[in-house]
Amino acid sequence: MENTLIQRVYVWQLPVRLYHWVNAIAVVLLACTGYLIGHPFAIQSGTEAYDNYWFGTVRFTHFVSAFFFFFNFIGRIYWGFVGNKYASWHNFIPTKKKQYEEMVDVLKVDILQGTIKPLESIGHNSLAGLTYFISFLAFLFQCITGFGMYAAMSTSMLPHLFSWIVPFMGGDFAVRQWHHIMMWFFIVFSIVHVYLVFYHDYVEGRGIISSMAGGWKFIEKEKNK
After folding, report:
1. CA–CA gap between residue 126 and residue 136 (Å, rounded)
2. What is the Cα–Cα distance from 185 to 172, expressed in whole angstroms?
3. Cα separation, 117 vs 198, whole angstroms
């Protein structure tokens, strides 16, 4: 009979966990309000016009969520340099042969449903890290295009730092279209992300879901027969 010893490892520090949940809430609010802004529907009512300022509320929610999203993202960039080894930017950009080999193993599990040896990564596996890096680039794109459009109706300094993107990309309509298209990237990403989190939690049994609440994961320490 084989006995497996399990030890707890503190993986996700509090700033990483806060970033994750603030980002999750912001993305949901931005996607929902962004869709309504792109495809508004009419609400007919017999009340006074000032009682039906729902679209203004939608836009306000979108703008406030965008600021939370932006500064939360800036905080994560900072923590990628000062956080622990699991939060480091080295986990997001594959530079070693071992990382590419791990990507193949992850694909065997996620896509081909193959049975391989347990994945050894404690933090993000290499494929997840690369995917998150791509999502960070999408975050940056959304911030630049979003604030670029917002600059036309704002006197604040921050949006005007990105006002150059509108003429650079061919005008307000083009920027708005690309900003809307990228919204669907986040929707698809979120669906796949939630599925894989539950799936890997079941396959690996390391407490992936609970780790983003408490920060701890469980790993095999050693095996004795």
Report:
1. 15
2. 20
3. 19
Distance CA 175, CA 180 (A): 9
Longest Cα pair distance anywhere in the chain, in angstroms?
77
Give the range of the structural domain holding residue 185, as residue numbers without chain letter: 3-224
How large is the angle between the packed helices 54-82 and 14-38, nearest 10 degrees?
150
| CB atoms inside a 10 Å sphere around CB 174 | 13
Q: Which two tokens stand for residue 40?
A: 């508004």
What are the φ and ψ backbone dihedral angles of 43, each rounded to 5 degrees? -115, 110
Residue 122 has pLDDT above 90, yes or no: no
pLDDT over 70 (residue 116): no
- Please state, in angstroms and rounded to a whole number, the distance separating the CA atoms of residues 19 and 90: 18
pTM of the predicted protein model: 0.85
Percentage, residues of the chain above pLDDT 90: 53
Residue-wise pLDDT for 49-100, tens only, equals 666 778 888 999 999 999 999 999 999 999 999 999 999 988 888 888 888 8
CATH number at residue 93: 1.20.950.20
139's enclosing H/E stretch is helix 126-150
Nearest Cα neighbor of 128 from 96, 103, 97 is 103
CB 128 within 8 A of CB 86: no
> What gap in Å lies between CA 148 and CA 168, rounded to an integer?
10
Q: For the chain, how many structural domains are there in total? A: 1
